[in-house]
Amino acid sequence: MRTAAYDGDVLVVGGGIVGLATAYAVSRAAPGTRVVVLEKESGPARHQTGRNSGVIHSGVYYRPGSLKARFAARGAAEMVKFCVEYGIAHAVTGKLIVATDRDELPRLHALAQRGRENGIAVRELGPAQIQEYEPEVRGLAAIHVASTGIADYRAVAEHLAEASGADIRYGADVVQIDRRPALGVAARTAAGDVVRGKVLVNCAGLRCDQVARLAGDGPGMRIVPFRGEYFDLARPELVRGLVYPVPDPAFPFLGVHLTRGIEGSVHVGPNAVPALAREGYDWGVVRPRELAGTLAWPGSWQVARRHWRYGAGELLRSASKRAFTDAVRRLVPAVTPDDLIAAPAGVRAQAVLRDGTLVDDFLIREGARTVHVLNAPSPAATAALPIGREVARRALDALGPV
Predict the structure, then answer these.
(1) In 3-state terms, what secondary structure has residue 352?
(2) Prior bond to 379 cis, omega within 30?
């Protein structure tokens, strides 16, 4: 490394929306900085970015002062502006969060208060007002969040890639990292190519903990993959916009919801079941080594022990279309099993600590010449632009004068 020229100043591992937003932010903050993005797939946004419900989240759910709360509210406005600037399909639709049981009413009210603390306009509704927004939705009460929207995040990622000016190398699966604090970082790909840089940024999503360990940094967490299964609604006219249940505050998952996409179809889901591989998009995808790694992590067993009742319900909804339909019917009683058409699933890269804590906020850690994004599931797509700036700031601090 002493004699070889650097291929770039900043090496970004991962070509999802966060990695590409980081490359974009580096180019804006420090023009002339050379950025190389290494993505193992043949194109951008092939995993979490391109396999979600496409929602621009308002920030109503997240603990005041957290990175999620700060970045989602800021990111939502910036994402809409970015979509307008680049002609990307999007819409600001608003959404309803609906309580269907009396036990949910205190949580719904607390959620409204949290939204206001986060600077988000929310309107509390009674049963009749719910039907003014969504005639087929039934509930005891709801809150309406006007700033929620939808976007084509695959297109966002593609435009970030182009606008960043980065050297983006697809099919570059990083399998080895040599870090020398006095010199920089070299990454070797599965194809045998060696790419050298001064700072490495880890935005590898489902593989971020593995990449951190390759770099010699103990991440203190493990990615435990949860698959979210979706359906499309055969009668999309039943839903005008976005309809959510009241989430359980013990979990970072939002529950089965209905989302009208930018193309006019209505997506239903996701549930949250353990995936048997990091890219386990259905039950038939099993990678024994990855599964063994998940089972060997003490936190995985702590999660199972604490939350087995919740998990059992999610597994039931995965195994039984009738059970999944029942969850949807709590919000939209007119939905039948025949209305649900299987759609592609996604996998959430959920960071779990050794003690079984489900990491609830974005998690960014630094090492010598490294910056690791270790927890960036939803609302990371919404918040991608401010996350990218934060990661870029840390990378540029580590880089020093170019």
Answers:
(1) strand
(2) yes
Give the length of the chain. 402
Which residue type occupies 203?
C
Q: Which of 14-33 are b and which e, b meaning 16 or more Cβ less than 10 Å from the residue's Cβ?
A: bbbbbbbbbbbbbbeebeeb
- pLDDT tens digits, one per residue of 316-328: 999 999 999 999 9
Nearest by Cα to 13 from 158, 285, 214: 214
Determine the pLDDT at residue 401. 64
Of the candidates 122, 134, 8, 107, the one whose C-alpha atom is nearest the C-alpha of residue 73 is: 122
Give the span between the Cα atoms of 94 and 56, in whole angstroms. 10
> Is the pLDDT score of 1 beyond 50?
no
- pTM here is 0.95
Residue by residue, DSSP assigns 147-182 as: T-EEE-HHHHHHHHHHHHT-EEEET--EEEEEEETT
Kind plus residue range of the DSSP H or E element containing 327: helix 321-329
Tokens 């903050």 found at: 29
CA–CA separation, 377 and 297 (whole Å): 20
Q: Which tokens in the block code for residue 202?
A: 């880890």
Contacts of 222 (CB under 8 A, 6+ apart): 209, 293, 294, 297, 299, 300, 351, 352
3-state helix, strand, coil in the chain (%, to 5): 35, 30, 40
Specify the pLDDT at position 193. Answer: 97
Strand order, beta sheet including 55-56: 55-56, 149-151, 90-92
Going through 254-361 in order, the beta strands assigned E by DSSP cover 257-260, 266-269, 273-274, 340-353
CB 143 within 8 A of CB 237: no
Q: Which residue has the tokens 């055969």?
A: 234
Rounded distance between C-alpha atoms, residue 221 and residue 142, angstroms: 36
Scanning the structure block, which residue is given the tokens 């089965």?
A: 256
Amino acid code (one letter) for 127: P
The CA–CA distances, whole Å, from 270 to 52, 259, 325, 342 equal 9, 10, 12, 11
CA angle at 261 for the pair 257 and 266, rounded to the nearest 5°: 55
